[in-house]
């Protein structure tokens, strides 16, 4: 008989049928006569209960059924009253596919998140990380479906680049080397090449600039891939390697851009509620009793749209009334997440799209407003997260863009191909970037970004 995934088993109603399931032992309990094994195969958060009449099985084999062991079970599917599921399995044959001794670190339940981060190679086997990574998959599917259904094209931008899109200088350099033929100096230290086949190259911080090339050719595109930032920030919201989704749309202005961002993020949140109900409920009950309520809340209301200048006024007001922030508030400041969260969580109690930031704190490519002080930027701010999306209408005027690049001393030789979009049939266009892991923080309710990506890369954590 072929294997039935546990998630599919729970949908069946042909009680009495003989089935095969394969999976890993989560727990084993019972009496001298009957044992109950909770088996999980990763297809769902829910375990199937395997009922084992001990008298029918070999004693030596039974000893091998320990937490973490991998089993193949043939048995009769019966209706269950006590197991929390509709279905359980009355075991007929059990094969131990893989034994697991007592050095297995996941013996007991209730490990700390910090401990589990140290065993990132095994943590997907826990209920929590199983739920998180199934949701991560589902969000990726939702994102592709959203854009595909809207007629956007998925465009692949390079990871090795020469330009610093965000202008923050936080890049990882890419060099060539031959691990087996390393050059060494007299002291025996390795001499690394300092370039990529004779050219300066880095890992991309954003696919946007190449995305703009695509938008001015294919109309509506999105990227979805890894990005890298060499920022030395150990916060619960920053990774050195994270995934970003960057739609870019010809002929969209900043208002269209805001509409798209709001529709997109609501679609993703609704998808999680509709398609990951068991996993979301598990995380809600386990860690964050307000998770489901928060997700539903975001779907209900229109996002607030507010200028940076008005946002600063609200924050200054709060300070005047005695609210204490760690960082100062004044016009021109790059908002800290405490400021963003104040606007969202305390003041408006809904997501906020903040627009028209001072040009000094935003990237070179954003469209200048008539005041010559602010740019057509938009950040989407979320409860618990702060900035979840950053975007803008782009400067489409060749001369203005060149002037800004010169003003910021960005090497023009790196930018000629980008400037061609403004030279040859330029058009208004807009886009934004959603941090995939920030979205996942929101929909899973996890509190540290290291816990929503399988293998987090941070200044202190890049072992495997
Ligand atoms: O605001 P950012 O830097 O914007 C861009 O990169 C633009 N090129 C996007 C665009 O307009 N196409 O980054 C966009 C989003 C942030 O809002 C945040 O959600 C996420 O990417 N992000 C990070 N996520 C995790 N770790 C980091 N170090 C992040 N830096 C940014
Ligand atoms: Mg930003």
Report on this model:
- The chain is α+β, with helices and mostly antiparallel strands and 464 residues long.
- It is 31% helix and 24% strand.
- It has 13 helices and 17 strands.
- The strands form 4 sheets. The chain has an 8-stranded mixed beta sheet. A 5-stranded mixed beta barrel has the order 1-2-3-5-4. Strands 7-10 form a two-stranded antiparallel sheet.
- A hairpin with a 3-residue loop joins strand 1 and strand 2 (34-40).
- Helix 4 packs across helix 6 (254-275), helix 4 (127-149) packs across helix 7 and helix 6 (254-275) runs antiparallel to helix 8.
Concise summary:
The chain has 464 residues and is of the alpha+beta class. Helix content is 31%, strand content 24%.
Q: Which strand order does the major sheet show?
A: 6-11-12-17-16-15-14-13
Order of helices and strands: HEEEHEEHHEEEEEHEEHHHEHHEEEHHEH
Low-confidence stretches: none
Main beta-sheet strand count, sense and barrel state: 8 strands, mixed
Strand content is: 15-25%
Kindly provide the name of the CATH class of the largest domain.
Answer: Alpha Beta
Rg measurement, Å: 27 Å
In angstroms, what separates the terminal alpha carbons? Answer: 38 Å
Number of strands: 17
Bound molecules: 4-amino-1,4-dioxobutan-2-aminium adenosine-5'-monophosphate, magnesium ion
* CATH superfamily grouping of the largest domain: Bira Bifunctional Protein, Domain 2
Helix content range of the residues, please? 25-40%
- The name of the CATH architecture of the largest domain is 2-Layer Sandwich
Helical region count? 13
Mean pLDDT rating: 94
From the helix content, strand content and strand pairing, which structural class follows?
alpha+beta
What's the domain count? 2
User: What do we call the CATH topology of the largest domain?
Assistant: BirA Bifunctional Protein, domain 2
From the spread of the alpha carbons, the general shape counts as globular
